Amino acid sequence: MQTPEHGLAGVPPLGSRVVVRHRLPVPDPRTGATLTDVVGDLVHADPRHLVVRTRRGVVEVASADVTALKEVPPAPARRGAPHLALSVDDLQRVMVGAWPATETEHLGDWLLRAAEGFTGRANSVMTAGDPGLPLDAALDRVRAWYTARGLPSAVTVAGPVGLDVTQDPLGALLLERGHLPRVPTRTLTAAVTAVCASTADATAGTEVQCSTALDDDWFAAFSAYREAPRRAAEGVLTGSPDQVFARVRDASGAVVAIGRLGVAAAWGGIGAMWVAPSARRRGLASAVLGTLAREAAGRGVRSLHLQTDTDNVPALATYGAHGFRPHHDYVTLRRA
């Protein structure tokens, strides 16, 4: 797990939505309660105080009075199933912690991310919100930041399913400045209960081993199907507040299927799903997915998210069969 910017163990990163339970100076005269909850966005944390921005204003809580602190999902933006009720921007923010970069810096509301080039998601700008600068000036800052790290400037533009980046002001400007778009990425979400139910048969018939630690066997399988420099990859794979690594072995003991659950912002992120070509069409992906969903349920997680390219038809079909529904698309544009 990476250390948040405030450096306090057990305290979520700034910007997280939290519930802070703390002692009252005197019992409530109406109810006699000695504890109360504050719900809102964590905007400051130091060894002596937590500051939470609530709907009614900013509340400061002395750390000595805190009895419980928990990160919770962002408030729903619309009615409906919880996994579909978040806005695009809020889900973009939620997903950051499930596949975290090893280095980050805020530019207004934007988040610049780098991990020595390991994966596009961990080496691109998450652009939810306002950068606090005109877009041209913000992109100049982005380019300088990535250039200083020997990386190409890469920026994600998120929007509704079927997003056309040419019709988005930021997307159009990136294209004008010479950035090239890759295949759109579809973000899917699901209720944990639905995934557990739909994968029950697959998990019952397959032994899936799980660990919260990244070991050599899991990493060898992961790095066999994609380039994964050990230092950068390990930083990303073990950087979530909590993570689970799942694997299936064949009769010889070889790892033939893997997956990862990253837990952040009270959501579970599914990633690193892979099945060896020789072991496909046996339901192993469903077994791994179901096992990770059960691991999420055991941690009190209600909703899952994952991302896959829009042209990966088999993956979209598999996830759709297990309750995942399209939430939004995003396109990563990288400077040539």
Automatic annotation (TrEMBL):
Domain of life from the UniProt record: Bacteria
State the InterPro entries in the record.
Answer: Acyl_CoA_acyltransferase, Bact_Acetyltransf, GNAT_dom, Rv0428c-like_C, SH3_Rv0428c
Q: Do you know which SUPFAM superfamilies this protein is assigned to?
A: Acyl-CoA N-acyltransferases (Nat)
Q: What is this protein called?
A: Acetyltransferase (GNAT) family protein
Keywords (A to Z) from UniProt: Acyltransferase, Transferase
Q: Supply the PANTHER family for this chain.
A: AMINOALKYLPHOSPHONATE N-ACETYLTRANSFERASE-RELATED-RELATED, BLL8307 PROTEIN
| Alphabetized GO MF terms | acyltransferase activity, transferring groups other than amino-acyl groups
- Domain N-acetyltransferase: where? 208-336
Organism for this UniProt entry: Phycicoccus duodecadis
